[in-house]
């Protein structure tokens, strides 16, 4: 299966995959070779990429001894992403000092 590359590049090959491990795990190979050992050619578009869409993450929580470490772990993971809006919802009649915001 062949498709045009990004921009005005030459033909690239889609679906070059090789299995890693057991199950359905696949690894997409970035450099595929044509018959004869020549690499497929392609050009990278020089136009800037659009900003990724905002991802809204809603995390329900409740009071428990491991609440602070759990929320800290999630917050550290979300800080690695861009354009993330995190909403923490606590299942309680009163807000706790840990989750509550000053408003």
TrEMBL record:
Domain of life: Eukaryota
EC number: 2.4.1.135
Reactions mediated catalytically: 3-O-(beta-D-galactosyl-(1->3)-beta-D-galactosyl-(1->4)-beta-D-xylosyl)-L-seryl-[protein] + UDP-alpha-D-glucuronate = 3-O-(beta-D-GlcA-(1->3)-beta-D-Gal-(1->3)-beta-D-Gal-(1->4)-beta-D-Xyl)-L-seryl-[protein] + UDP + H(+)
Protein name as it appears in the record: galactosylgalactosylxylosylprotein 3-beta-glucuronosyltransferase
Main EC class the enzyme belongs to: transferase
Transmembrane helix recorded as keyword: yes
Entry-linked InterPro entries: Glyco_trans_43 (IPR005027), Nucleotide-diphossugar_trans (IPR029044)
Top-level taxonomy: Eukaryota, Metazoa, Ecdysozoa, Arthropoda, Chelicerata
GO cellular component term of the entry, any: membrane
PANTHER family: GALACTOSYLGALACTOSYLXYLOSYLPROTEIN 3-BETA-GLUCURONOSYLTRANSFERASE BETA-1,3-GLUCURONYLTRANSFERASE (PTHR10896), GALACTOSYLGALACTOSYLXYLOSYLPROTEIN 3-BETA-GLUCURONOSYLTRANSFERASE P (PTHR10896:SF50)
Cellular localization per UniProt: Membrane
Transmembrane portions of the chain: none
Bilayer topology term: Single-pass type II membrane protein
Family: Belongs to the glycosyltransferase 43 family.
Record bears the keyword Membrane: yes
GO molecular function, one term: galactosylgalactosylxylosylprotein 3-beta-glucuronosyltransferase activity
Main localization category: membrane
Keywords carried by this UniProt record: Glycoprotein, Membrane, Signal-anchor, Transferase, Transmembrane, Transmembrane helix
């Amino acid at each position: 299966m062949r498709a045009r590359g990004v921009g005005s590049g030459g033909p690239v090959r889609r679906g070059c995959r090789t299995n890693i491990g057991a199950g359905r795990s696949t690894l997409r190979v970035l450099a595929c070779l044509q018959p004869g050992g020549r690499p497929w050619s392609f050009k990278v578009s020089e136009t800037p990429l659009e900003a990724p869409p905002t991802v809204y993450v809603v995390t329900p929580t409740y009071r428990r001894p491991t609440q602070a470490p759990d929320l800290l772990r999630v917050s550290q993971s979300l800080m690695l992403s861009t354009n993330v809006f995190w909403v923490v919802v606590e299942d309680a009649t009163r807000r706790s000092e840990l989750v509550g915001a000053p408003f």
